[in-house]
RNA sequence: CGGGAUGUGGCGCAGCUUGGCCAGCGCGCUUGCCUUGGGAGCAAGAGGACGGGGGUUCAAAUCCCCCCAUCCCGACCA
């Protein structure tokens, strides 16, 4: 195709808006000489980009990131928990992925791609076909063979490694992919924060031994910290529970945000931080120096709750033993915690080794304890397993339900009056509890889990038979770790953390574009020409820029620029034409600077480079 | 999965209780005029058969039944 001069493209194009004018490459003497060399296939003109912004808030969007990503034209829903990523969102995703790749590669990670569709056999081999439950998307091929859509890839990668890695000489190995993942969430919600289809980076480490795993784990811990720092997020790594994936040591990377579904507790005096699911706080000693008194029953008509009982009897809640009945597949279990504590159901479930653990309904409570809810107690409670929190065994002369309506027992002494089947840490830690490290009171906050790293050990290599031969020719299971980052979730988390009432405020590092050039009046030839030139020179300098050439009134363009969240906005109005100075406004903070047109490229470049370096 | 709610042009909603005029409004969209520093104005248009199915009725968006979808609230997730 022959190159054409289009010196005055601005006004020509407005009057004659045929698509081909935009697509014709421009010659070196006028606008964008280097476009072909830069392999930019289309011009970044707002009039031609698919950025469907919405004035009104979609009715089904609740959290900020969901609302803004939909309104600003980044995502559209295809089904519950399943989204289209429109061009702007894809650009952000690619930026995050690029950062992730750099940090994984820096640690020696090798990228590969594994299948989304996975054969059931592998999952049956690992035992997770049954364990994973309804969250696993299952499907069959035409022959009736079972498959699932991968929610994670331990089975596949372990299968790969057991077939291809035979010698200690091939270890350690860090393999990762960035791939769609599928989890049929019981309740998809919050837009990209909890979808059923999402993009995730998952890396798997393979080492000879525990010491090697420790090194791989450290590498990933470091890499993850760098990734989220570079994404411009305020976050914290916290000790976590390992959940269904299994394993021992594990940390979650939590981005602080109100909308987050994770609660973490942390210490302001030392570096302790943990997910409440897993947090431990040392048992408090209370009333230990008392002499055990004789057991006695007292009438407590209608006093069911801890608050009612303590008020009625005039005792501290710390003196109560709260008895909660849970239904599990192994029958009903009574969990005992102090009156002012709550049960951590995850801990309970783990200690019991059960898959299902739900608070029993009142009918079950009545059947088991012989009394309505509020009057159950461990003394004389027959036929159910009793699990007591650590603090319980230190209590003296406690108060419990009497297993009959309108009565409690006082001077209950664990060990004397009842014997638990299990004593363990069952308590849900909350703000104010003592830090396990330094005993100062803990703080609590909400956050979004954007990454998690696990030490798996030989859990998968053993069942799937992934072994290598060591120097002495001995077969040993490879020692594994796995490390995930939710890419799309990270994008949403970034919006949760970086927005104001007008829209998104992208950090430079993951912004879809760095600059938008806005001519105030698309009918003013001088403005349009200046805007075109500014845009073209920025583009030629390799800067990620959009020209808002839509025939809209200025207010509309400003509102959209704020909503979409371009870090920099260059406005070309009457003053600019008159003075030759362009207005550059920072989205974050709103600071405005006037820059001579001929210096705009270096000025913008400096800001961007400064932001990306920092 | 339990509890609550909603499905009416692209988006946001009214209409439904007390069935009945051709199913309305705002935004967006198209065309024209006009306007151009924070989502302007005027005029003329296009676009839905009311989530799906069944039923009641002379007549159903409105009443009844079933199903589906979506959203919100609660309980082992990147």
Characterization of this structure:
This protein has three domains: 9-43 and 513-613, Rossmann fold, CATH 3.40.50; 93-280 and 442-492, Bira Bifunctional Protein, Domain 2 (BirA Bifunctional Protein, domain 2, 2-Layer Sandwich); 296-428, YbaK/aminoacyl-tRNA synthetase-associated domain (YbaK protein, Alpha-Beta Complex), CATH 3.90.960.10. Strands 3, 7, 8, 9, 10, 11, 12, 23 and 26 form a nine-stranded mixed β-sheet that branches. Strands 17-14-15-18-21 form a five-stranded mixed β-sheet. Residues 1-42 have low confidence and may be disordered. It contains 17 helices and 33 strands. The protein is globular and about 95 Å long. α3 crosses α13 (487-497), α4 (87-106) runs antiparallel to α8 (210-230) and α4 packs across α13 (487-497). The protein is of the alpha+beta class and 614 residues long. It binds one RNA strand of 78 nucleotides through β8, α10, β17, β23 and β26.
Q: Using the coordinates above, name the CATH class of the largest domain.
A: Alpha Beta
Unreliable stretches (pLDDT < 50, length at least 5) are 1-42
Count the E strands. 33
Mean pLDDT: 88
The share of residues in helices is 25-40%
Strand content: 25-35%
Task: Return the CATH architecture of the largest domain.
Answer: 2-Layer Sandwich
Secondary-structure-based class equals alpha+beta
- The CATH homologous superfamily of the largest domain is named Bira Bifunctional Protein, Domain 2
Lay out the secondary structure.
Layout: H1 9-15, H2 19-23, H3 64-71, E1 75-79, E2 82-85, H4 87-106, E3 110-111, E4 117-119, H5 120-126, H6 128-131, E5 137-140, E6 146-149, H7 154-164, E7 173-182, E8 197-207, H8 210-230, E9 235-239, E10 250-256, E11 262-267, E12 273-275, E13 296-299, H9 306-313, E14 321-328, E15 331-338, E16 342-343, H10 345-352, E17 357-359, H11 362-369, E18 385-389, E19 398-401, E20 407-412, E21 422-424, E22 427-428, E23 442-457, H12 459-464, E24 467-469, E25 475-477, E26 479-486, H13 487-497, E27 499-500, E28 503-504, E29 515-519, H14 525-540, E30 545-547, H15 554-564, E31 568-572, H16 574-579, E32 581-586, E33 592-596, H17 600-613
Parallel strand pairs: 3-7, 15-18, 18-21, 29-30, 29-31
Antiparallel strand pairs: 1-2, 4-6, 5-6, 7-8, 8-26, 9-10, 10-23, 11-12, 11-23, 13-20, 14-15, 14-17, 16-22, 19-20, 23-26, 24-25, 27-28, 31-32, 32-33
The protein binds one RNA strand of 78 nucleotides through strand 8, helix 10, strand 17, strand 23 and strand 26.
């Amino acid at each position: 195709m022959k190159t054409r001069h289009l010196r005055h493209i601005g006004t020509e194009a407005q009057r004659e808006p045929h698509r081909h004018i935009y697509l014709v490459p421009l010659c070196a003497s006028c606008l964008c000489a280097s476009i072909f060399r830069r392999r930019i296939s289309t011009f970044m003109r707002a009039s031609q980009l698919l950025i469907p912004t919405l004035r009104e808030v979609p009715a089904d969007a609740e959290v900020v990131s969901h609302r803004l990503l939909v309104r600003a034209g980044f995502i559209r829903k295809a089904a519950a928990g399943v989204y289209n990523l429109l061009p702007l969102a894809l650009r952000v995703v690619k930026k995050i992925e690029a950062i992730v790749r750099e940090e994984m590669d820096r640690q020696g990670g090798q990228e590969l791609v594994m299948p989304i569709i996975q054969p059931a056999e592998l999952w049956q081999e690992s035992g997770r076909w049954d364990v994973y439950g309804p969250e696993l998307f299952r499907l069959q091929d035409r022959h009736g063979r079972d498959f699932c859509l991968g929610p994670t890839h331990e089975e596949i990668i372990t299968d790969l490694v057991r077939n291809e890695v035979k010698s200690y000489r091939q270890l350690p190995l860090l393999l990762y992919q960035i791939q769609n993942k599928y989890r049929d969430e019981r309740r998809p919600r919050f837009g990209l924060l909890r979808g059923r289809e999402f993009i995730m980076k998952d890396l798997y480490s393979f080492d000879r031994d525990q010491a090697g795993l420790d090194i791989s784990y450290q590498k990933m811990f470091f890499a993850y910290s760098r990734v989220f720092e570079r994404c411009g997020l305020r976050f914290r790594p916290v000790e976590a529970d390992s959940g269904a994936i299994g394993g021992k040591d594990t940390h979650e990377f939590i981005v602080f945000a109100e909308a987050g579904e994770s609660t973490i507790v942390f210490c302001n005096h030392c570096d302790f931080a943990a997910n409440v699911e897993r947090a431990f706080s040392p048992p408090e000693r209370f009333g230990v120096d008392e002499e055990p008194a004789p057991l006695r029953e007292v009438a407590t008509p209608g006093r069911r709750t801890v608050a009612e009982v303590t008020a009625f009897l005039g005792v501290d809640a710390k003196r109560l033993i709260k008895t909660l009945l849970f239904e599990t597949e192994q029958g009903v279990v009574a969990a005992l915690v102090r009156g002012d504590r709550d049960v951590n159901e995850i801990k309970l479930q783990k200690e019991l080794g059960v898959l299902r653990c739900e608070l029993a309904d009142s009918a079950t409570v009545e059947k088991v304890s012989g009394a309505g809810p509020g009057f159950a107690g461990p003394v004389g409670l027959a036929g159910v397993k009793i699990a007591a929190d650590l603090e319980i065994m230190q209590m003296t002369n406690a108060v419990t339900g009497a297993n009959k309506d309108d009565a409690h027992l006082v001077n209950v002494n664990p060990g004397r009056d009842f014997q638990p089947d299990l004593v363990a840490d069952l308590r849900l830690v909350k703000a104010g509890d003592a830090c396990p490290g330094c005993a100062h009171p803990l703080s609590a906050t909400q956050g979004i889990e954007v990454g998690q790293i696990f030490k798996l050990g030989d859990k998968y290599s053993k069942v799937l038979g992934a072994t290598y031969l060591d120097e002495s020719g001995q077969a040993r299971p490879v020692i594994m770790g796995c490390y995930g980052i939710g890419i799309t979730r990270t994008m949403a988390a970034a919006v949760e953390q970086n927005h104001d009432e007008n829209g998104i405020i992208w950090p430079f590092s993951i912004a879809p574009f760095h600059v938008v050039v806005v001519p105030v009046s698309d009918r003013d030839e001088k403005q349009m020409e200046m805007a075109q030139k500014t845009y073209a020179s920025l583009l030629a300098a390799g800067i990620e820029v959009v020209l808002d050439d839509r025939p809209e009134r200025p207010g509309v363009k400003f509102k959209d620029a704020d909503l979409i969240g371009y870090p920099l906005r260059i406005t070309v109005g009457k003053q600019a034409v008159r003075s030759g100075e362009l207005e550059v406004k920072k989205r974050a903070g709103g600071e405005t600077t006037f820059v001579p047109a001929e210096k705009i490229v270096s000025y913008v470049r400096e800001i961007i480079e400064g932001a990306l370096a920092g």
